[in-house]
Automatic annotation (TrEMBL), chains A, B, C, D:
CDD domains given in the database record: ASS
GO cellular component: cytoplasm
Protein name: Argininosuccinate synthase
The encoding gene: argG
Reaction it catalyzes: L-citrulline + L-aspartate + ATP = 2-(N(omega)-L-arginino)succinate + AMP + diphosphate + H(+)
SUBUNIT field: Homotetramer.
Subcellular location: Cytoplasm
Pathway participation: Amino-acid biosynthesis; L-arginine biosynthesis; L-arginine from L-ornithine and carbamoyl phosphate: step 2/3
Keyword Nucleotide-binding: yes
A GO molecular function held by the record: ATP binding
Keywords annotated in UniProt: Amino-acid biosynthesis, Arginine biosynthesis, ATP-binding, Cytoplasm, Ligase, Nucleotide-binding
C-alpha cells in the first residue's frame, strides 16, 4: 500500500474487465500514481456482460467520458483469428493460440484510446510470470514507442490474496462472495477459446478435473449420433455453415456451439512459455478445432503442393511469433503476406462429421479444385500423365544418390 | 504378351507378396526377360501368412534356394518406425507415412539378397502413377548404383484387368475367385498402418464407405467407456504399455489392438504425390496415432523449448524426405542425427485416455522432467524467477519495435 | 537426318538467337516436323546485334510476319533481376543466378507469341544434360499447360559437331569460320552475367584460363587506384549511381562497366545441377556483385532485425526455386510477397569502394535509417536503453538453460 | 564508489585480461563485495603476453593460488572455431562471428575454475549495452545454474572515464599513459579476428579510418603479385597448408599471416545486436575469410546436393544461435550433430589465390570427389545420364504447374 510510483504518469488507459482484480488495479493506480484513470472494456466474446463494468467504473470514480466500452468480436475474428487460421497455426504442434491472438487487439485499442484522450500511459492486469505481459507490452511499444507502461503485478507490494482483499476492502471495492478465497484455477476466455491454468492443474501427471471445463461438454456424455455439417470457404476464410452465410464472429460462435455439443476442442497441454518455464494449461477451442480441420480439408484440394509445403514449413515460426507476442512486427507481416498470397483460391465446401470429441473431414469440393479429374487431361483425348515419364523422373532424382553409392563402393565406405 | 525386355537381365530379385499381381509379374519376368527369378517375401505385419507365398513360388517354378522369406517386423518398427516417430512426423499436417516408411526396408533387403545371390536386377510391383515406385527405386539406386530395375507396370502391355487375368490363366497362375474382377479399392498394409485408395474413394466429396475400413472399429460402435493406459518411453522410443516391457513390434501390435478397439487412427485425406498429382487416400494407423500423442506428451515435459521448436521447424522437411522416398540420403541422415540428439532424455511415462476415435494425453511424468517444480528453485530459499526480470526482458525485446515505431512516427508512415 | 517427329505440330515458336545452333534447329524443325516456324529473338543484353538474326531467319525461309524481335532489357532487369536481388539471392552460397533468372522471361514471351500467332508448340535450344531445358519447359507448362514442347537436343540423331556441320551444309545454313570446330567452352550471356562452362573448364582442379573471361578485366591489371561510387535505392531497388537517376537496364549496364574495369564479379564454381550432377562453371557478374554488396549495405541500416533474419532464412529456398526453374509457381510468388513486403523502406544511399576484384561498402545513409542515434531516444531527455534491462533480459533467456543445467546436476548427466 | 553489493558473494572468478578496465573491476570487487577474487587470464590468441597479467594480479593483492593463466588457443580453434566453420557460418550474410565464438569457451573455463576453487560467483568485464554480457552469462547459467553473476558495468556508479581513472588512482592501479583518455574505438581480439567499434566508427556513413585496422594490411599497398596456396581438409577441418600438416591454432595463425599480407578479411558492417539495437563494427578476420572460401571449395566437390542445401538452410539459424550466445544449448548441439554428420567425406585439397583483399578458389580435388567423371559412369561402357530421362523428369515436375495453369484457364483467372 505504500507503493511508490515508478514513473511519472498523468493519465493512464487501463484494460478493465470489471472484475475484482482489475478493479483493485484501478484503485491502486489512483492511489499510487495519483493519475487520471481511463478504463477500456472490450467484448471479445469472453461471455460476460459489459454494462456492469461501466457501472463499476463509475462507482470507483471514473468520469463517464473516461469509460470506453467496445464490442470487438467481429474485428477480433475477421482481422486476427481468421488470418491466423489461414496458416493452420498451432503452437508446439497442438495449441490453437486462443489467448495469444487476442492480446494485440486489446493493446491496439488501448493505444488508440491513449492517443485520443491524450493519455501518457497504459496498464494491464497480466501477472509477471506469464506470456501475456509480454504480448501486451510488445504491442504497446510497437504502436507507440514513447508510451509508459504500468504493470501492477510487477510493481506493487500486494503479495497475497489476503492483501489484495484487504486493499479492496479498504478502498470499498465490492467483492463477490466467491472471489474472497483463491480460485482453484484461473481462466482466460474469448470467442476463440477458454484457457485454464494454475493450482489444481499444476501437477501435469494428474488428469484435469471435470469441473474445469466450461466451453465443451464431456465427450462421453455428448450425443451418441454424429452431427454432419458443411463449411463454405472463400479465399481461405469460412463464410457459411450448412450453406448459411454468416459474419465472422457469428460463424465462429455457431461453430463453438456445435463443438461444445459434441465435446470437441479440449486440450490438456504442457507448453513452453516465452519467459522461459514450462506451464500446464487446459484449453477449450471448440469452434477453432473444427475450423482447423475444415481449413486443411479445403486446402487439400485447392492448394498446390508447392504452396502447401511452404506453408507447413513457415508455420511453426509464424506460430511462435504470435505466441511470443510479435504480432505487430515486420517479420509477422512478411509471413502474413506470403500466407495470404496462397489463399486466393482456397474456396469451396467441406463436409465434416462431429462426434464425441472429434471433427473429421468426410468430403470436400470446390470450383477451384486441383484434384478434379478433368483437370489432369490437357489435350483432347490425351491424359497428361504418362507412366513412362516416371522412369526419367526417378532416374534423375536418383542420379546424385547413385553417385554417392558409387563413391561408397569405390572408397570402401 | 509380346513385350520385349527393355534391358538385359540374368537374375532378378522380385518383391513377392504371393498375391495374384506379383505372381503375374513373376511369370512375366520369366517369359519376357527369360531370367532367373528370386523371390523375396517379407513379413512387415501386413497380416498375411508367408508360407503360402513359398508354396506358390514353388508352384510357379522358383527354385527353393531362390525363395527368401523373412520376418522383418522388429527391424521395421525399431529402425524405421520409431526413428520416424521421434520427430513427430506427419506429412501435410496429418499423414503418418505408414506406406512410405516401409519401402526403404523392403528395398534394402532386396539389394542385400541381390548381392548375396549375384542378381543383377530387382523388380517391384508398384504402379507407374504412384509414389511407391519412386521410393523403391531411389532406395535401390542409393544402395547399389549399378543395379538394373524392372518396373513391370511401366513396361508391359497388359492394359486392363481382363488382360491380366488372361495372362494369369495362360500361365496357369491360380486365381482366387474374388480377384477376377477389379477390386473396389486397393490396399497396402503393414504393422504401422493400412492404406486404401482408388475406385470408390476417388471422389473426394464422398465419404469413405464403411466397408473400406479394416484396421479400426467404427468409433460410433466402439466401447462407451474410455480405456486408460500408460506408455513408458526411453530415449524417445516407447518401451512398455501399462508398465509391461515389450519389444518394438510387440508394443506397436498391442497399441494397434487398443486403437482398433477404440476406433482410433482413421484418416480421410487428399494428399499431394511426389509424382505431381493429388490423390485421395484413407489411412488407418491405430497404434501410430496413439504413439504420436504419447510421444508429444512425454516430450512436453522432458524436451527443452529450443530443441522442441527446432524439431517442429525441421519436421515438415523430414516428412517430405520420407514421403518422397529419400530415406537413404545424406540429408535425411543429417536430420536424423539432429533429432536423435534431442531424444537423450525423452524418458518417462504418459497416461492416455482412448475413446471413440480419440487418444488424449491426460498425464505425464518423468525423472528427467523439466517441469518439476523443484527444478526452478536454484538457490536455497530462493526462486529463480524474479518478476522484475520480466520488465528488462520485455524492454529489450521491444527495443527494435520501438525504433520501428519511432521511424513510422518521424516519417509519417 | 532421318529423325521422325515425336509429336504432331503445326506451328512452333522457336527461341532463336541467329547463331549456328539455333539456325540448325530452325531447319531441323522445318524438315523433321514439317511445321511452320516462328522465330523469337530477344535482346536481354547478351551483347549481340539482333538485326542479323532477322536477316538470317528470312534467309532460312521464315515469313516476315513470323519473325519476332524484342528488346527485353528493361523488363528483364526491372521484373526479374531486381526482384531477385531484393532477396540477396545466391545459390549455394555464391552464384548470382544470372542464367537462371533469364529463362522464365524468354519462355513467357514465347508463350505470348504462341497465343498470338496460334502456334501449338514451342522449341528451345538447351541441351539434354543441363538446367536450362528444365527452366524453359517448367515455365512453358506453367503458362500454357497444353503446349507441345520440342527439345531438339533430346530428340535428334545429330550426335557430333561433324554431323551438325554436315546438316548445316546440306541445308545451306551459313557457317562462320570459327564455328566449324568445337568451341573450347560454351557461353551464355545477358545483361546480368556471362557464364562459361564445358571442355577447358571441366577439370575443377585446374584454374580457369585467362581467355575465358569476357566481361571482367583481370583484377591484377585493373586500376591501382580504387573507384568510389554511390548507389541510391528506393524500396529495395537501385535507382541512381553517383546521384544520377537511371532506368533499371541503364543502371545495371553502368554497374557492369564499373565492375568490368575493376575486375569485379568473377566466380569459379562447382555447383549442383537440378538434373543431378555436379558441374563446373565460371561466372562473371560485375554489376550484380556490386549490387549485392550495396543492397546488403542499405538493408543494414533500414531493415529491422526480424525482417532481415527471416529473409536470410528464406533465401536459400528462394534461390533454389529460381535455379531449378520454378519461377512461375505459387511458392515463389509467396516468398516474393514476403520479400517485397520487407523492402518498403529500403531506401537510401550506399557508398562503395571498387578495387581489383572487390566491392566494399564504406558508408550508408538513409532517411529511414533505424540506426540513427536520435531514434533510440524515446522520451525527452531519456534514452530508451537502460543497462539494467539487460539483466532481466539475460535471466529470462537463461531460465530454460538453468533448468536444463539443474537437471544435469540432479541426474548426474 | 559507494556501490552496495547486489548479492552476497564469498569468492568470485574474474575474467581478467590484465588491462586497466579489468584491473579496476578486480579492485571494485574487493572493495565493494569484500570477497576473495580469483583471476582467470586466457590466451586465445589476442596477441598479448600473459605473464604481465600475473604480475599485475599479484600487485593488486591476488594470492598466487588464485591466479589462473591458461593457453586456450588450440582448444579454441579445434573445438569452437572449426566446428563453426564446418557450417560456413556467417551472421547477417557477412560476419564471421569472431567475438561470439570465443565467449562460451572463456565462460566454460571460469565455471570450471569456480567449481575447482569453490567460488560462488563469476564476473566479466562486458558492458551493459552489448552482446557479450549475454554470451558470457547464458553460458555461465547453462553450465552452473546456481552461479551468482557479477556484471560491474551494469552495477557500479562509475559513469565516466574520469571516474574510472579516479577510482584506479585511489586504489593505486597502474595506469598506462595512453589509457588515461577515452580510446577512439574499442577492440576485441583473438586468434580468429579483431573487432573494432565505438566513437570514430559510430557514424555508418563515414568510412573506417585507416588507423583502426590492426590485423590486415591495406589491400592497396598489399603485394602486386598474387599468392597461391593449397589447404588440405579432413572431415571438414583444415589440416595442412601447402601440404604441411599443422595443429589447428598453428594453421589458423599461418592463414592469418597470409591474409594480413594480402589485405584479406576486412569487413565494415552495421549489424543487429541481440539486445535490440543496430551497431556498426569493423572486423578483421584474415585467416577465417580464406578458410570460409576454401571450405566452400572443398565442399563443392565432396558434399552431396541434398546435404549442401540443407546446410545452407540451417546456417542462418545456427549463426544466430552463436551470435546470441546460445552455444551451450540443446538446439545448437542438434544442429552441430547434423552439420558434423555431413562432413564425413569433406576431405581433399583446395587451391586458392590471395590478392589484394580477395581469396579466390581456383582449384579443388579430392579422393572423395562426387564430381569425378568416372563416377557418373555406372555400367561398363554406359553412362548413367540419359538425355531422354530429362523429359520425364521435367514432365512430372511440371505436372502440378500444368494443373494450376489449367485451373487458371478454366476459371478465367
Amino acid at each position: 500500500m505504500a507503493d511508490k510510483p515508478k514513473k511519472d504518469v498523468k493519465k493512464v488507459v487501463l484494460a478493465y474487465s470489471g472484475g475484482l482484480d482489475t478493479s483493485i488495479i484501478l484503485k491502486w493506480l489512483q492511489t499510487t500514481y495519483g493519475c487520471e484513470v481511463v478504463t477500456f472494456t472490450a467484448d471479445l466474446g469472453q461471455g460476460e456482460e459489459l454494462e456492469p463494468a461501466r457501472a463499476k467504473a463509475v462507482l470507483l470514480g471514473i468520469k463517464p467520458e473516461n469509460i470506453f466500452i467496445e464490442d470487438l468480436r467481429e474485428e477480433f475474428v475477421r482481422d486476427y483469428v481468421f488470418p491466423m487460421f489461414r496458416a493452420n497455426t498451432v503452437y508446439e504442434g497442438q495449441y490453437l493460440l486462443g489467448t495469444s491472438i487476442a492480446r494485440p487487439l486489446i493493446a491496439k485499442k488501448q493505444i488508440e484510446i491513449a492517443e485520443q484522450v491524450g493519455a501518457d500511459a497504459v496498464c494491464h492486469g497480466a501477472t509477471g510470470k506469464g506470456n501475456d505481459q509480454v504480448r501486451f507490452e510488445l504491442s504497446y511499444y510497437a504502436l507507440k514507442p514513447d508510451i509508459t507502461i504500468i504493470a501492477p503485478w510487477r510493481e506493487w507490494d500486494l503479495r497475497s490474496r489476503e492483501q489484495l482483499i484487504a486493499f479492496a476492502e479498504m478502498h470499498q471495492i465490492p467483492i463477490a462472495k466467491d472471489k474472497r478465497g483463491e480460485a482453484p484455477f484461473s481462466v482466460d476466455a474469448n470467442l476463440l477459446h477458454a484457457s485454464s491454468e494454475g493450482k489444481v492443474l499444476e501437477d501435469p501427471s494428474q488428469e484435469v478435473p471435470d469441473y474445469v471445463y466450461s466451453r465443451t461438454d464431456d465427450p462421453v456424455t455428448a450425443p451418441d449420433k454424429p452431427t454432419v455439417i458443411t463449411i463454405d470457404f472463400e479465399k481461405g476464410d469460412p463464410v457459411a455453415i450448412d450453406g448459411k452465410k454468416m459474419s465472422p464472429a457469428t460463424l465462429l460462435k455457431a461453430l463453438n456451439d456445435l463443438g461444445k455439443l459434441n465435446g470437441i476442442g479440449r486440450l490438456d497441454l504442457v507448453e513452453n512459455r516465452f519467459v522461459g518455464m514450462k506451464s500446464r494449461g487446459m484449453y477449450e477451442t471448440p469452434g477453432g478445432t473444427i475450423l482447423l480441420a475444415a481449413h486443411r480439408g479445403i486446402e487439400s484440394i485447392t492448394l498446390d503442393r508447392g504452396a502447401g509445403h511452404l506453408k507447413d514449413e513457415l508455420m511453426p515460426n509464424y506460430a511462435e511469433m504470435i505466441y511470443n507476442g510479435f504480432w505487430f512486427t515486420p517479420e509477422r507481416e512478411m509471413l502474413q503476406a506470403a500466407i495470404d498470397k496462397s489463399q486466393e483460391h482456397v474456396t469451396g465446401r467441406v463436409t465434416l462429421k462431429l462426434y464425441k470429441g472429434s471433427a473429421w473431414v468426410i468430403g470436400r469440393e470446390s470450383p477451384y479444385s486441383l484434384y478434379d479429374q478433368d483437370l489432369v487431361t490437357f489435350e483432347e483425348g490425351a491424359v497428361a500423365y504418362d507412366h513412362r515419364d516416371a522412369e526419367g523422373f526417378i532416374r534423375l532424382n536418383a542420379l546424385r544418390l547413385r553417385t554417392l553409392g558409387q563413391r561408397k563402393k569405390k572408397r570402401g565406405l
